[in-house]
């Protein structure tokens, strides 16, 4: 019975499976992803999967060379997240006491370290989240009926949030999205234009904006000031802004990287004034090199009910446990460790500033050397005839009209410089940024990167060395750009392309015969010519780098010439490009016309052969064409017909008779092919000299230790060569001998001695070969 039951169950299962397949149904297990099938995966497999996802494939190139330096303090911060998960499993009473202790201790330590007395702390993952909560708190504080009436209160008296024009991008839009306010509630305060830093808020203009808003029935709500702007690290005049906010009842919030210097013994007055503001946002994670550490917003407010409604305080233990990683890390570092890391970052910035002052062609955008730990610099070619004291003036204080013409090439060169420095010195954590007034610059912010990357003073010295090594390339390239443009514009069939994003000598495009300058679409014929031109230029093995790409704001192909590290003969470079491109175009045109020429030649040959057959038929007669009769007639009276044929000359594109070939037993020369295009001038280089290098002739580049320079050797070779050629011409022109004067007795004797001793000429020939 048992055996029969098993067989019956097997039959039922098979029939059910067959029914599911017929109905198109799939088993439930097939819809589950692979890792979830079965009884699950072991811990080793799961960790291996995580490691593979973190590091990716070994064949892939690394996206970034920066590696977070996670020391013991970093492991302590990461341990806090794991401990937070374990602590959350405690009973409610123990969990409440523990979280309250962690939150109160961390808040007290941060207040003492950063000199912010009588304040509360809000820990958040998103750096901008704290400011959004502060704005909500300010709305509840200024609008008493906001909890009851909601948006109607805001509609009757619209709130205004003031942001600096130098604030981080997207901050205002983020606040409006979080608060549900229209963009019209934001007010952009411009920076100084006449006096002071161009990255500081214009206080006089701000006061005017506040008065205008009050007159229009609006409510000035909150002002966001910067203690270290996101771009260049400049600090607003926070003391004056605090007085203005107290006058009009505006909430003052401060953020910026310079707030880290509050932990040091000496703090500038502008940064120290931030301790009197209503709230501030700190980011201790990057400052201390701690991964996964939340940001902290310190604020002053006496009503706990409003802070609870605004979301700054919470009764949930999980929200209080956000401070646990920072609570562990601060205890591990101690006050001395915290101050040491911030002080080290400031010393690195000062060390770089002092070194950059000694480097030519480098401009530093700096407001206050003692308060700003951010260094922003850029390469800048000094204008002709400029004052030597011009180097000490920041770029932002130079009139835009004075540097407007060189802005684009300098921006491209600065971007190239920044990318090169990022690759050569990754431990410095450099970033390339574009400023509205100053253009493209390179930023060094050790407070945000030094602790995580482990930047040392030796890395700053290496950075200075790399900058000095790149300066000759930058200056030489910038000097050759104008000469290259003039040479290209003066050369037929070449078009100079002004591409401000290319950091090389320039961009050129060859205009072929069928080129349509008015069209911006791709040109297949031009692309073919530029592809061959690029191949020919790369075969020259010069120091220049050649690339091909689409034209700036167009789809046509161009040749991009890279940067020059030495003096380049621009005229030879442009001439080589023009001649090579013209040769490629003519060869391509010849190949394209070859098919048509051959087709016409074949048709003409067929016509001539048919005509020749008709003439032969009339000459021989009809009887000779009959098979049997023609053979007998040809035997009795053979026809003496000459062999006639045709040959096709591809060079001339015409048919030629082969009679000359059969008579003289040699092939005719035909028409001489056209000469290959060549340059108008040929340059003779010294041994080992690469293409496009200026000749040393006429320069002072002669070795003082050598008795005979390379230039003198080259001149001797030319003189001897010309002398031998002249002698050969006289030997091959005997008809001019009677016109020559009779040789003297001395010359006759010299000739006799030369005939008797021919070996005396060998030293002269050997010397000539050695000089060659």
Automatic annotation (TrEMBL):
Alphabetical GO biological process terms: carboxylic acid metabolic process
Keyword Lyase in record: yes
Pfam families the record matches: PDXDC1-like_cen (PF22930), PDXDC1-like_cen2 (PF22937), Pyridoxal_deC (PF00282)
InterPro entries: GrpII_AminoAcid_Decarb, PDXDC1-like_2nd, PDXDC1-like_3rd, PyrdxlP-dep_de-COase, PyrdxlP-dep_Trfase, PyrdxlP-dep_Trfase_major
Lineage top rank: taxon: Eukaryota
A GO MF term: pyridoxal phosphate binding
Positions of region (Disordered): 1-37, 666-772
PDXDC1/PDXD2 second domain ranges (all copies): 372-478
Keyword Lyase recorded: yes
Cofactor(s) for this UniProt protein: pyridoxal 5'-phosphate
Stretches with biased composition (Basic and acidic residues): 1-29, 756-772
Keywords (A to Z) from UniProt: Decarboxylase, Lyase, Pyridoxal phosphate
Domain PDXDC1-like third stretches: 484-589
Biased composition (Polar residues): 743-755
Gene3D superfamilies (UniProt xref): 3.90.1150.170, Type I PLP-dependent aspartate aminotransferase-like (Major domain) (3.40.640.10)
Family: Belongs to the group II decarboxylase family.
Name recorded for this polypeptide: Pyridoxal-dependent decarboxylase domain-containing protein 1
Taxon lineage: Eukaryota, Metazoa, Chordata, Craniata, Vertebrata
Gene name for this UniProt entry: Pdxdc1
């Amino acid at each position: 019975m048992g055996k029969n039951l098993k067989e019956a169950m097997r039959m039922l299962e098979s029939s059910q499976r067959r029914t599911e397949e017929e109905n198109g149904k799939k088993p439930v297990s097939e819809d589950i992803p692979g890792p979830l099938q079965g009884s699950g995966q072991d811990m080793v497999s799961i960790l291996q999967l995580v490691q593979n996802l973190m590091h990716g494939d070994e064949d892939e190139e690394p996206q970034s060379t920066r590696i977070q330096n996670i020391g013991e303090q970093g492991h302590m911060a990461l341990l806090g997240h794991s401990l937070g998960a374990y602590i959350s499993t405690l009973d409610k009473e123990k969990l409440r006491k523990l979280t309250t202790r962690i939150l109160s201790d961390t808040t007290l330590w941060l207040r003492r370290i950063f000199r912010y007395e009588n304040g509360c702390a809000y820990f958040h993952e998103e750096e901008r989240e704290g400011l959004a909560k502060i704005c909500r708190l300010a709305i509840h504080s200024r609008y008493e009926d906001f909890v009851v009436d909601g948006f109607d209160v805001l509609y009757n008296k619209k709130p205004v949030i003031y942001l600096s024009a130098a604030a981080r991008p997207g901050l205002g839009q983020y606040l409006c999205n979080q608060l549900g306010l229209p963009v019209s509630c934001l007010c952009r305060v411009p920076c100084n234009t006449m006096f002071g830093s161009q990255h500081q808020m214009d206080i006089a203009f701000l006061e005017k904006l506040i008065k205008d808003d009050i007159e229009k029935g609006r409510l000035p709500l909150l002002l966001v000031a910067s203690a270290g702007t996101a771009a260049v690290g400049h600090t607003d005049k926070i003391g004056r802004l605090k007085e203005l906010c107290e006058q009009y009842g505006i909430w003052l919030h401060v953020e910026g990287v310079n707030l880290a210097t509050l932990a040091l013994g000496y703090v500038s007055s502008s940064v120290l004034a931030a301790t009197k503001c209503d709230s501030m946002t700190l980011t201790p994670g990057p400052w201390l090199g701690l991964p996964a550490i939340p940001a902290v917003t310190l604020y002053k407010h006496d009503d706990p009910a409003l802070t609870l409604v605004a979301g700054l305080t919470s009764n949930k233990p999980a929200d209080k446990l956000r401070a646990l990683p920072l609570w562990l890390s601060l205890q591990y570092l101690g006050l001395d460790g915290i101050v040491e890391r911030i002080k080290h970052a400031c010393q690195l910035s000062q060390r770089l500033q002092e070194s950059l002052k000694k480097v030519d062609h480098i401009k530093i955008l700096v407001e206050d050397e003692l308060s700003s730990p951010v260094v922003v610099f850029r390469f800048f070619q000094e204008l002709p005839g400029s004052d030597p004291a011009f180097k000490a003036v920041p770029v932002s204080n130079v009139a835009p009209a004075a540097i407007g013409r060189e802005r684009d090439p300098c921006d491209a060169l600065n971007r190239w410089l920044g990318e090169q420095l990022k690759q050569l010195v990754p431990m410095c954590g450099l970033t390339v940024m574009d400023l509205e007034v100053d253009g493209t610059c390179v930023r060094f912010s050790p407070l945000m990167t030094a602790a995580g990357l482990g930047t040392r003073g030796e890395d700053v010295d290496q950075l200075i060395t790399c900058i000095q090594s790149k300066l000759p390339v930058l200056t030489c390239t910038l000097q050759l750009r104008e000469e290259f443009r003039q040479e290209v514009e003066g050369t037929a069939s070449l078009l100079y392309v002004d591409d401000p994003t290319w950091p090389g000598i320039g961009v050129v495009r060859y205009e072929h015969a069928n080129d349509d300058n008015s069209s911006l679409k791709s040109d297949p014929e031009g692309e073919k010519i530029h592809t061959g031109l690029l191949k020919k230029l790369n075969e020259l093995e010069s120091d220049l780098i050649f690339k091909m790409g689409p034209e700036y704001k167009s789809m046509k192909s161009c040749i991009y010439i890279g940067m020059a590290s030495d003096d380049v003969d621009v005229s030879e470079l442009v001439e080589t490009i023009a001649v090579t491109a013209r040769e490629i175009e003519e060869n391509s045109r010849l190949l394209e016309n070859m098919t048509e020429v051959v087709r016409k030649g074949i048709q003409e040959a067929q016509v001539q052969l048919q005509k020749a057959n008709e003439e032969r038929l009339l000459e021989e007669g009809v009887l000779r064409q009959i098979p049997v009769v023609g053979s007998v007639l040809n035997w009795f009276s053979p026809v003496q017909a000459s062999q006639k044929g045709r040959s096709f000359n591809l060079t001339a594109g015409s048919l030629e008779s082969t009679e000359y070939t059969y008579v003289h037993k040699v092939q005719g020369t035909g028409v001489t092919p056209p000469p290959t295009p060549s340059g108008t001038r040929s340059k003779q280089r010294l041994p080992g000299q690469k293409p496009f290098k200026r000749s040393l002739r006429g320069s002072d580049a002669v070795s003082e230790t050598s008795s005979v320079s390379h230039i003198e050797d080259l001149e001797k070779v030319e003189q001897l060569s010309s002398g031998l050629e002249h002698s050969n011409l006289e030997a091959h022109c005997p008809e001019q001998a009677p016109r020559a004067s009779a040789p003297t007795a001395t010359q006759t004797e010299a000739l006799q001695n030369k005939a008797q001793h021919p070996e005396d000429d060998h030293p002269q020939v050997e010397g000539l070969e050695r000089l060659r």
